[in-house]
User: Which sequence fits this backbone?
């Protein structure tokens, strides 16, 4: 079973539109972390946010906001007033607690294209 | 800002050859990881390394793969006899504590011909 599901494979929006990227996760652990990473066309993975399982407070950082809901096992990512530079593949990831380091489980990614 | 460095950025090799992918994690980090991303697919965990030994590995990480921390700074991934299906982007990551953020390198694109 997939631990992290990103049902949206590709999304296209026109610049300045808002867009929400969905992420649903599955874990039996009570302590875990959720992440979003951005992968621009250049290929590197850029950290965006980390959330631990005990902190359901939503977070806003500039045009980015995240909605964490344990009741639905979702950690959705919204970009407000999208820009062309937001075009990238976005990965949601789950990290379960381990004594010897955290293994990351990545979703399949959502490819976002922002059209000028 | 400290960063994880991977070399080379692109490696081309013939099937059956051995390759070594190199990573320099962030200097005070203790946990090290390798991930693989086949073109257009998701990032997949290969192996984690802590206290000079493998702590976890995935099904992908078979006998053809090995990792090493030969000195205090480098962390390497060796593929003994490359196959066509090993062609992928390989990411190294490191973290300072179990709960901390994994910082990823820019990746090495491996092309097996």
Assistant:
């Amino acid at each position: 079973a997939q631990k992290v599901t990103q049902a949206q494979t590709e999304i296209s929006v026109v610049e300045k539109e808002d867009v929400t990227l969905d992420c649903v996760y599955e874990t039996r652990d009570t302590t875990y972390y959720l992440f979003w990473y951005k992968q621009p066309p250049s290929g590197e993975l850029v950290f965006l946010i980390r959330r631990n399982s005990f902190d359901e407070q939503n977070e806003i950082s500039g045009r980015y906001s995240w909605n964490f809901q344990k009741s639905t096992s979702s950690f959705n990512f919204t970009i407000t007033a999208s820009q062309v530079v937001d075009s990238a593949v976005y990965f949601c990831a789950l990290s379960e607690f381990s004594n010897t380091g955290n293994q990351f489980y990545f979703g399949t990614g959502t490819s976002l294209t922002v059209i000028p | 800002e400290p960063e994880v460095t991977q070399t080379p950025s692109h490696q081309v090799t013939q099937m059956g050859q051995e390759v070594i992918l190199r990573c320099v994690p962030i200097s005070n980090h203790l946990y090290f990881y390798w991930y693989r991303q086949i073109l257009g697919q998701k990032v997949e965990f290969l192996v984690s390394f802590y206290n000079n030994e493998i702590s976890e590995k995935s099904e992908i990480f078979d006998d053809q793969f090995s990792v090493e921390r030969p000195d205090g700074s480098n962390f390497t991934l060796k593929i003994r006899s490359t196959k066509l299906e090993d062609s992928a982007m390989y990411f190294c990551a490191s973290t300072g504590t179990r709960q901390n953020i994994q910082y990823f390198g820019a990746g090495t694109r491996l092309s097996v011909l």
User: Anything to note?
Assistant: The two ends of chain A are 38 Å apart (CA to CA).
